[in-house]
Amino acid sequence: MNPKDKLIEKFRILPAQEKALKHLGIETIEDLAYHFPARYGDTASASTIANLEKGQNAVISGTISGLKTKKAFRRKISMAEAVVTDETGSVKVVWFRQPYLAKMFMEGTQVRIEGKYSEKGFSNPKIEPAPTLFNKTSPHSLYPVYPETRGITSNWIYHAVKKIMSRTLLDTLVDPIPEEFLKKYNLPTLKTALVWIHAPHKIADAQAARKRFAFEEIFFIQLERQKTRVLSRERAAFAIDKKFEEVESFINRFPFAATNAQKNSIEHILEDFRKGYPMSRLLEGDVGSGKTAVAAVAAYAVATSKPKNQNFGTLQSAYMAPTEILAQQHFESFIQYFKHLPINIALITGSGCRKFPSKLNPDGWTNISRAQLLKWVANGEISMLIGTHALIQKSVKFKHLALVVVDEQHRFGTAQRQKLVNKSEITPHLLSMTATPIPRTLALTLYGDLDLTLLDEMPVGRKQIITEIITPERRNTAYEKIRDELRAGRQLYVICPRIDEPDPAKELAILAKSVKEEAKRLKKEVFPEYEIEILHSKMTPAEKEHVMLFFKAHKIDILVSTSVVEVGVNVENASLIIIEGAERFGLAQLHQLRGRVLRGNHQPYCFVFAEIKTSKTVERLRALKTAKNGFELAEFDLKQRGAGELVGTKQWGLSDLGMEAIKNIKMVEAARLEAGKIIERDPHLSQFQLLKECLESNSQRIHFE
């Protein structure tokens, strides 16, 4: 049996079941083996049949027999019927409209029944198998309960796992984790871990198995990242020989005094530039911490350097932003940074191209044709090109691309970033930036191929956001305070968790305000005298850009939006933000949202509206007022609510087990340490063939002798 064998080749699987399995991410033998139980039931906690009470929910465990199908209610409704027996008696069990259940269990199978007991027995109870999986001579009371979906039950998965976990198969497994690591960190072997996670004798066995598989997942991620990191040093890059003193005059022109964190970041970048191999650095910092200024210094160092063996021309930089409005904003920012220098800066987006300076207006930019811009970029006349995804199109060619800056890097896939890096024969330096605060463990795991730099200081003079937690009874008081600020000429963001009201016919009503209805309510009942518009993800890019430009021009007073409001969008006059249904957001995301009002000179306010008043919720939200920065909040959320509450976890590609593992800094550091040792010693893994195969075969983890 091959780990990459399709399940459909080994089992009789109906089309509906195949679709359900794909929904669960199960297509191969390996997928099934790594589909771990969500929890474990315990037959020891079951009631005896003799002690059942009518009308009560109960759990029983026993032997099933008398399985058959029949028609009920004048032969219109199909059903399954059986009898369950324990040492104290028997009880009848029926399932209406589920006749297939009679074919899923064999006579004499041990089962667990959970449901409401009546004088006629159990009607439509939940049924699960309850024997040991692999050790028939030593039965125990724990049984696995698997994540399931419509069309595939935990019971089906149970039997499928039992089939592939035959003793012959287990005995031929080869463990990809080196034996020395298993002993060092007291981890079970692959064979033992698979048995323990699918059929534990005790909960401690399952926990030990989960620890091993968590280590395995983090270890392989680290191995791949560390390999990328070390092999990148074998490639040549433009050596940019700049000292801090040579960029200091540029830094002194900032409209604010550079923080120590910014100066340290610049020192790290210049040091990387001098090494001769490509820099790969991630710059993390809160909204308003000055990441763009650091990127500008890096671009300045590049633009004032000559290509090797040339005393003319300059090296080039490319700056990729996730949206047009952000790309335009960065273009305007870079003009302010570089307008005193003879440096050409250009913008390329889906809407058109611009160049600074303009021949007709040396202090401003001009629209130019795409063909003309591409020609100037290709011959090296444009020192800095700022843009959206348009930058990675094949038609965009550089002459001496030495630096790539990716803003809000999590918004781009690895392949997109790589396309930009590959636009030069000589590998450019890469500076990724993000305002998304993530815990240190996650950063160490996901960005193992990058050097991490934190901007953990705010520029001097930046006003602190006054944050208020507003419970329902204080809503009107908050509105009056907001009205005072609106009268003074300020603008307001209102963030809602959803776009539309729920359809009662299709889903349960959820107590969460929607953008569309809240905008109507505010206009009718609260702020009728002000211009109100909406913004959400279902709008086209052109519609979103139109609304944001109108808001920036103060043609809109109140913008009601989902969390789609762009990170980094600069609306200096918007000093107020309301966040509705705050308990539905992670703390790091709330921190990012309130950062929208940190752009101007006016006192910023954030009103966190919570509908749920439990002490735990209020305590969580109060952390917004006490935490020093977004990274502290991300760590707090990780401990309080788990990894699933962090911003954007789905796109990080970690399993639920992996996301839980990042709570354990010791495990992450151990996996990183061991992976690093292997790669430093043998970056091509020529002495670790099994590990090499695992990485090359898309993380295939099950191998046989």
Could you please describe the fold and organization of this structure?
The protein is α/β, with parallel strands linked by helices. The chain is built from 25 helices and 25 strands. The strands form five sheets. A nine-stranded mixed sheet has the order 14-13-12-15-11-16-17-10-18, with helices on both faces. The protein has a six-stranded parallel sheet with strand order 19-24-23-20-22-21, sandwiched between helices. A five-stranded mixed barrel has the order 2-3-4-6-5. Helix 8 packs across helix 9. The radius of gyration is 30 Å and the shape is globular. The model is unreliable at 132-139, 504-510 and 645-651 (pLDDT under 50).
Write the layout of secondary structure elements.
Blueprint: H1 7-10, H2 15-23, H3 29-33, E1 39-42, E2 57-72, E3 77-86, E4 89-96, H4 101-104, E5 110-118, E6 121-123, E7 126-129, E8 142-145, H5 154-164, H6 167-171, E9 173-174, H7 179-184, H8 190-198, H9 203-232, H10 244-251, H11 260-273, E10 280-285, H12 291-303, E11 316-320, H13 324-338, E12 345-349, E13 352-356, E14 366-368, H14 370-378, E15 384-387, E16 401-407, H15 414-421, E17 429-434, H16 440-446, E18 451-455, E19 466-470, H17 475-487, E20 491-495, H18 515-526, E21 532-535, H19 541-552, E22 558-561, E23 574-579, H20 587-594, E24 605-609, H21 615-626, H22 630-641, H23 656-661, H24 665-681, H25 689-696, E25 703-704
Parallel strand pairs: 4-6, 10-17, 10-18, 11-15, 11-16, 12-15, 16-17, 19-24, 20-22, 20-23, 21-22, 23-24
Antiparallel strand pairs: 1-8, 2-3, 2-5, 3-4, 5-6, 5-7, 9-25, 12-13, 13-14
Helix pairs in contact: 8-9, 9-24, 10-12, 11-12, 12-13, 16-24, 20-22
